[in-house]
């Protein structure tokens, strides 16, 4: 799993029904210190994360489908938690 | 999931039957701002995306097979949506 | 599988129940010689690893769920062992 | 899926039975324009691809096993098609 | 699949039972010409590979478990063959 910062939302049409009632978040991957790495991922939001929040990203299809309660959804990345603190 | 821009199509022979009636798209991966990253992916088109359109790519085999309605297809990447807007 | 050094812990809320009684470790990926690579992974700890210890990381969802004894958990990376020695 | 150019073959012993009657191809990953990227993959050949040909690589275990007609083979990458043309 | 050269062994405690009777190999990923790429993988040895030998690495959980004859082992990378020759 990776840390990311919510940077915005993605609006898409003509996609699979699983996305109909879901927010797709643009998440910038960050270092443990919170610096942007230059990479990003588009993830489904299941924790109601807001812009600027640091989140935990799960980027794995089977786990992503499970947390959505779907067995056949075309998804891979999900925001599974909001990060309160990284203790180093 | 990642953002990409449809750059063209790929014509292939001697491939698996699953590809017979499908368009294979050459998709350039892009940043959230729409800049080419230099990487690409060949993806099956299930949303009838046109050249130049920004799309959402799912690069995961199980989800790709599910959206194709196939349980045993040799595919991994699928265009699952056309992006209307990235709100940052 | 990869080698990593435990660098700290991650405190998260609003996450999936599977994480409730688990420690999430910030693990810096290292070379066989123990040098930081600059990359990291957030992993569930199943071996009670301490800060500074070199560990073996499994970054694969199905195996991660199995070692946790869960069939439907949104996890992908797990610390599966503490490294005593790398013989080169 | 990715584009690659067949660069040679790999001869291996002491490997799994699934490989006994299969050609293992050394495939250089290429850009859509056909330039080598510097990366490569060892893939099982199911389309009888020849040296120098541009091919479509599927790098995913479940799909690779399916196209081989095996449910328990230790393979991940397969040449699934020969590319005739990339229309950009 | 990738080519690698066996560089040593990893000694670990507190790990999963599946590792109890297995050798964990430190494998340096190499180019087809045999040059180190700077990356590595820790893999289970199922072909009794020796230090310095060039091997074929399968880095995929399901296939790795299958070749080990286990359905629930926390492993992902396995040495599946010893390379005799790369014909370019």
Features:
homopentamer, 88 residues, mainly beta, OB fold (Dihydrolipoamide Acetyltransferase, E2P), five-stranded mixed β-barrel, 9% helix, globular
Provide mean pLDDT of chain A, rounded: 91
Q: How many discrete structural domains of chain A?
A: 1
Quick one: CATH class of chain A? Mainly Beta
How many strand units of chain A? 5
> What does the main sheet of chain A amount to?
5 strands, mixed, barrel
| CATH homologous superfamily classification of chain A | EutN/Ccml
CATH architecture name of chain A: Beta Barrel
The coarse overall form of chain A would be: globular
Cα-to-Cα separation, first versus last residue of chain A = 17 Å
Number of discrete helical segments of chain A:
1
- Quaternary state of this entry equals homopentamer
**Sheet/helix structural class of chain A:** mainly beta
Major β-sheet strand ordering of chain A:
1-2-3-5-4
- CATH fold category name of chain A: OB fold (Dihydrolipoamide Acetyltransferase, E2P)
Helix content, binned percent of chain A: under 10%
Topology of chain A as a string of helices (H) and strands (E): EEEEHE
Write down the Rg of chain A.
13 Å
Given as residue ranges, the uncertain stretches of chain A (5+ residues, pLDDT < 50) are none
């Amino acid at each position: 799993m990776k840390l990311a910062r919510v940077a915005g939302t993605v609006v898409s049409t003509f996609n699979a029904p699983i996305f109909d009632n879901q927010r797709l978040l643009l998440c910038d991957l960050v270092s443990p210190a919170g610096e942007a790495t230059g990479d990003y991922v588009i993830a489904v939001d299941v924790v109601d994360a807001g812009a600027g929040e640091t989140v935990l990203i799960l980027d794995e299809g089977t786990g992503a489908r499970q947390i959505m309660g779907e067995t056949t959804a075309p998804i891979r990345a999900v925001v599974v938690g909001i990060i309160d603190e990284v203790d180093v």
